[in-house]
Amino acid sequence: MERRSFIKSCTLLCASGIGIAALMESCGSIHYAASTIETNKIKINKSEFIDKKNAERKFVVVRSEKLDFPICIYKKNETLVAISMQCSHQGCELNPNETSLVCPCHGSEFSKEGKVLSPPADKDLKQFKVITDNETIYIEL
Ligand code: FES
């Protein structure tokens, strides 16, 4: 192998490694919280909002066999907002991030409170009532 070809191969290998690491890190930013069902409530431990480095998560996602779509729970100061991740336009599953939820199908965007920020969706997302005690979050279905 020529020197030039060897350097080019090494550069490509390093670049792809960095790309894969960045992709894995971005995938890791969504935390799927462990949950249990109690009659018509989903129960989540508040510790789900703390990551391994003891930093506070801005949101967590909950999946349940009782739901067709997951619920995203955003933490805003001490207030929790639980919203459905089903797009109000044609029902695709939304992709959450720290500031909004974006629809991969036609590009609608919603705020952390589930309000429409960008069309084509024209209805806000379904919100669930949230109750808390010292250690637990309850989402009423
Ligand atoms: S289904 Fe979400 S924008 Fe169309």
Describe the protein in words:
With 141 residues, the chain is of the alpha+beta class. Strand 11 and strand 12 (136-140) form a beta hairpin. Residues 9-27 have low confidence and may be disordered. The protein folds into two domains: 1-29; 36-140, 3-layer Sandwich (Rieske Iron-sulfur Protein), CATH 2.102.10.10. It contains one helix and twelve strands, in the order H-E-E-E-E-E-E-E-E-E-E-E-E. The protein has one helix spanning 3-27; strands at 36-38, 41-45, 59-62, 71-76, 79-84, 95-96, 100-102, 109-111, 116-118, 127-128, 130-132, 136-140. It has a four-stranded antiparallel beta sheet, with no helix packed on it. A four-stranded antiparallel beta sheet has the order 3-4-5-10, with no helix packed on it. Strands 6-7-8-9 form a four-stranded antiparallel beta sheet, with no helix packed on it. The termini are far apart. The chain is globular and about 40 Å long. FE2/S2 (inorganic) cluster (FES) binds next to loops.
Terminal CA distance: 63 Å
**Major sheet strand order:** 1-2-12-11
Characterize the biggest β-sheet: 4 strands, antiparallel
State the name of the first-level CATH class of the largest domain: Mainly Beta
